[in-house]
Amino acid sequence: MKIAYLGPAASFTHAAAAKAFPKEEMVAKSTIPDCIMAIEKEDVDVAVVPIENTIEGSVNITLDYLFHFSSVPVVAEIVLPIAQHLMVHPTHVATWKSVQKVMSHPQALAQCHTFLQAELYGVEREVTPSTAYAAKWVSNNPTELVAAIAPRMAASEYGLEIVKENAQDLELNQTRFFVLSRKPVSILLPKEEEKTSISVILPNNMPGALHKVLSTFAWRDIDLSKIESRPLKTSLGEYFFLIDVLSAGKETLVTNALDEITLLGGTANKLGTYYVHRLQTT
What we know:
The protein is α/β, with parallel strands linked by helices and about 280 residues long. It is built from 9 helices and 15 strands.
């Protein structure tokens, strides 16, 4: 079985994918859209993509691609602790505070905002496709006085030295990852709550439309764990909503709620029903 993940090797997505599928073939992709399109085109059997972080919130590119381009259901969620480390090439350990640039994924840079402001104020920050990409670049360019923010496994993978551990703003930092697959998958990790993810477009020109949509869940006693809006990319002021509900034992009630939203004039699609697998360490 082939598993697509946001690469290169030693990214956080790689760590999540490897924990979930330790015996399967890992296929690194350069971007999150590449991961999703790989499963869409059936080039791989499973795709693992980040969906939300404790500090920086939702990964918008994932949300948008799941809504606009993906027809593959969400079959599992993996929650991974995230520790961001500042690392340099071994030749620059003594001079790391004089680095000319810090490279990493935009989420990682944002998660380390306080540290970067305090310790490396004014240093250029360069966005890369993934944390592991940044670590690999630093490794391949030993003459450049550049640091990367990446996971510990990236330092080992690419021969870098960690000069600042746990640079993230919040100690209890976690990222949720969605597992996409056309077929059920077996993940030998402890299961927690069952959730269902839903996309909703509100009825047009209906006063209190959002209230009425949410009421379809409320009066059925279905708990929402998340609701978020994203631009519909049609015209200014039009949005779709992504809603996560706790659905254990309530599959029929969730289906009835979606039917009621349709009767109200909205559009509701189930992105998947799945269990949450929460990891304790990376």
